[in-house]
Amino acid sequence: MCCVAGSLFVRGSTALRLRASRPQLKRDPLGSGEREITMHRASYLLQLLLSLLSARGLAAEAMDAWRGWVTFKQYARIVHEAPDPGISVQIAPEPASDEVRLVFLRQVVEPDGDWLRPAGGVVCELTFSQPSVPVAPFEFWSFDYGTFERFVDVVEQTPVFADLMVRRPTRSAVYWEAASGMSGPDAAA
Question: 161 and 91 in contact (C-beta within 8 Å)?
Answer without folding.
Answer: yes
